[in-house]
Amino acid sequence: MVKENAAFIFQGGSLLFFRGELPDAQQAAALPLADFGSFGSLEPRGCSWGRVARDAVLPEGWEAVDRRAFGERFGMEAFKAMSTAWGLMDWKAQAQYCGRCGTKMVQSPADERAMKCPKCGHMLFPVICPAMIVAVERDGKLLLAVNKMNKTGRYSVLAGFLEVGESIEDAIVREVREEVGIEVDRDSIEYLYSQYWPFPRSLMLAARARWKSGELHADGVEIEKAGWFAPDEVPQNVPGTITVAGWLIRDFLKRHGVTRD
Ligand SMILES: [Zn+2]
């Protein structure tokens, strides 16, 4: 549960806690805030977001915590609220100046989630970047890979941003081909669910697909290694239940009669 007046204050990529807990707006007022605002009409209403400079010195009792670890500790609902706060904070930080004429932007009087250029009228809304994430299956086995960016060497499903002009299906076919050298059956692609993912501003579109042809060959650039895993071979150390990657893997296991926390 998120308390009614919770304040999600960020410093760099971290979330700030006061005495080991999420602060409220009153407590957050003690911080050297660079920006602060309310959730407005977004849920959970009454919450607020804010930002302190990366080099700001925190008053006593405050500490920066990892945003992912926050979700794992407090659960899905709290993670979602934190994600909304991050999205609002990130948008305001990115929309300081007009990209067209360089003038300082102001809050649009007509739309609470629009920044407007007082000189040329250019509008900036929160940016959300679609990305696909896919569980590819071949003869009852799941494709899992280790991304080079992941320092823990953890296996997960493949994911990647959509390119300009692409459909989700285009992106799935291309990413899987680029990253592990196989073809998926385009007609087998089935959309499942989505998740807003604040690292930094993605909308993850989750799908299932079936292998069509080719043998696995990790590209060595983004993907370190890849393999096919039968339900009883799926490693214990896969993404957790607050991530869409974790849902896809658990969905695969469940459909094959394996339940995992
Ligand atoms: Zn302008």
What is the tally of beta strands? 15
Number of domains: 3
| Sequence of secondary-structure elements | EEHEEEHHEEEEEEEHEEEH
Q: What overall form do the CA principal axes indicate?
A: globular
**Approximate helicity band:** 10-25%
The CATH class of the largest domain is Alpha Beta
Task: Report the average pLDDT across residues.
Answer: 95
Task: Write structural notes for this entry.
The protein contains five helices and 15 strands. It is α+β, with helices and mostly antiparallel strands. It folds into three domains: 7-94, no CATH class; 96-126, no CATH class; 129-255, Nucleoside Triphosphate Pyrophosphohydrolase. Helix 2 runs antiparallel to helix 3. The longest helix is centred in the first third of the chain and has 19 residues, at 76-94. It is globular and about 55 Å long. It starts with 6 loop residues before the first strand and ends in a 6-residue tail after the last helix. The model has no long low-confidence stretch (mean pLDDT 95). The structure holds zinc ion. Zinc ion binds at residues 98, 100-101, 103, 117, 119-120, 122.
